[in-house]
């Protein structure tokens, strides 16, 4: 049975609202979360092709990744072509408005992943064209028994090094085990952010080889923090700020202050539920707001 809902003048059909996508947390609650968080979430996904990770039968069952926007997408939903493997481009959805978030949530797309670049704005000369990256991302991934506390220590050092290079970093939880650093940059050569991020990861690993690793080799990671620089490849994506994560219970990739990073002594201090995030936004607004104004050129 489908229900008809109206969101900012758009009419959508949603279904299976009572289905639990997490234990005790229904699809209706997922949709409600994304509608309520739209004002702070949309600036971080708007203009970027979205990759959806979907759990149609809930987090206790399997998931799959959807890049291609299905043929039956609403006619008002923005879609753009992205170069794929081989010669076949992939048509991605672009979530530019609250109704687009409802469309995605109705597909049980708990996770929203976007690249570090945007398309040219509608109506501009660059409309539909991928622009160079405007964001550099460092994904700090702890190898057990290391946890997010170790990530925080590495993040503080990375913040110092980035500042020395004239760059401003902000932090968010991954919503899983790690931490993400987001660094706004002025668009330049498409591969420049990846090159810089890799050099930065190697530098930190050389400084603290017992605590940091930059290589992809998983055997090197136990007890260390992997500084994943590879998500700056224009073909890769990172979970968006305020996105839910498909874990055993609903957690959120949540912006945090540097004071919170510095004060973290237990992993559970940086675990946030949808309710936590609503309260944080009411208190702090979007801790990532205004990042574009901090954009600087890579050294």
Automatic annotation (TrEMBL):
It is an enzyme of class 6 (ligase). Residues 26-287 form the DNA ligase D polymerase domain. The keyword Cell inner membrane does not apply. Its EC number is 6.5.1.1. Coiled coil: none annotated. This is Non-homologous end-joining DNA ligase. PANTHER family: BIFUNCTIONAL NON-HOMOLOGOUS END JOINING PROTEIN LIGD. Keywords: Ligase. It holds the Pfam family LigD_Prim-Pol. One of its GO terms (molecular function) is DNA ligase (ATP) activity. It comes from the Bacteria. The lineage of its organism: Bacteria, Bacillati, Actinomycetota, Actinomycetes, Mycobacteriales. It comes from Rhodococcus antarcticus.
């Amino acid at each position: 049975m489908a229900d008809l809902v109206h969101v900012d003048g758009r009419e959508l059909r949603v279904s299976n609202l009572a289905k639990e996508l997490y234990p005790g947390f229904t699809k209706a609650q997922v949709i409600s979360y994304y509608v309520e968080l739209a004002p702070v979430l949309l600036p971080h996904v708007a203009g970027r092709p979205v990759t959806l990770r979907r759990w149609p039968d809930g987090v206790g069952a399997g998931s799959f990744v959807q890049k291609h926007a299905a043929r039956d997408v609403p006619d008002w939903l923005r879609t753009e072509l992205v170069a794929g493997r081989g010669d076949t481009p992939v048509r991605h959805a672009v979530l530019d408005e609250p109704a687009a978030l409802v469309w995605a949530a109705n597909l049980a797309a708990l996770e929203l992943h976007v690249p570090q670049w945007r398309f040219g704005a509608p109506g501009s000369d660059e409309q539909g064209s991928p622009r160079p990256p405007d964001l550099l991302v460092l994904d700090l991934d702890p190898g057990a028994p290391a946890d997010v506390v170790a990530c925080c220590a590495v993040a503080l050092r990375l913040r110092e090094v980035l500042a020395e290079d004239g760059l401003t970093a902000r932090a968010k939880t991954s919503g899983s085990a790690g931490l993400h650093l987001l660094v706004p940059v002025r668009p330049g050569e498409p591969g420049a952010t990846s090159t810089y991020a890799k050099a930065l990861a190697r530098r930190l690993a050389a400084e603290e080889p017992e605590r940091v690793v930059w290589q992809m080799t998983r055997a090197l990671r136990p007890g260390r923090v992997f500084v994943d620089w590879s998500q700056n490849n224009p073909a890769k994506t990172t979970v968006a700020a305020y996105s839910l994560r498909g874990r055993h219970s609903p957690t959120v990739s949540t912006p945090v202050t540097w004071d919170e990073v510095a004060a973290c002594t237990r992993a559970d201090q940086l675990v946030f539920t949808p309710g936590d995030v609503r309260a944080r936004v009411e208190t702090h607004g979007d801790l990532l707001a205004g990042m574009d104004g901090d954009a600087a050129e890579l050294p």
